[in-house]
Write a structure and sequence with these properties.
single chain, Ribose 5-phosphate Isomerase B, Chain: A, 5-stranded parallel beta sheet, Ribose 5-phosphate isomerase B, isomerase, ribose-5-phosphate isomerase activity, RpiB_LacA_LacB, RpiB_LacA_LacB_sf
Length: 145
């Protein structure tokens, strides 16, 4: 079964996003680009909300969001009850976001990390399993119901 990945961001993350789509598809992932589709100034919530809704409704397994700092997309994504977005800038954070938090969206700060690191963090995020156990109890308490 091909893993389906949603990707989006804003104008500051556009170049990384465009390259990341190519890399993911080359690795066998099915990718949907939620935009933006140019590097013209863009409002990230216009792309983040539809991406998160698609993950929540089961259309995609995980998502990747890329903006300048990673903060705007992560804050917006985390407004959704079914989303656990993690802002990552190093390998250990990317692994722990999956192992301990069962994060389903990776937020990357394009202005603060080189593309090769963004690619490495994405690979770690997409291939690291949630450990469950005591972490599942904690994750179960995150959403406001």
């Amino acid at each position: 079964m091909t893993k389906k990945i949603a990707i989006g961001g804003d104008h500051a993350g556009y170049a990384y996003k465009k390259e990341m789509v190519k890399k993911l598809e080359e690795s066998g992932y099915e990718v949907k680009d939620f935009g933006p589709y140019t590097d013209d100034s863009a409002d990230y919530p216009d792309y983040v909300h539809p991406l998160c809704e698609a993950i929540e409704n089961g259309e995609f397994h995980q998502g990747i969001l890329i903006c300048g700092s990673g903060n705007g997309v992560a804050i917006t994504a985390n407004k959704h009850q079914g989303i656990r977005a993690a802002l990552c800038w190093d390998e250990e954070l990317a692994a722990l976001s999956r192992q301990h938090n069962d994060a389903n969206v990776l937020a990357l700060p394009a202005r603060f990390i080189p593309f090769d690191l963004a690619e490495k963090l994405t690979k770690i995020f997409l291939t690291t399993d949630f450990e469950g156990g005591r972490h599942a109890t904690r994750v179960g308490k995150i959403a406001c119901k």
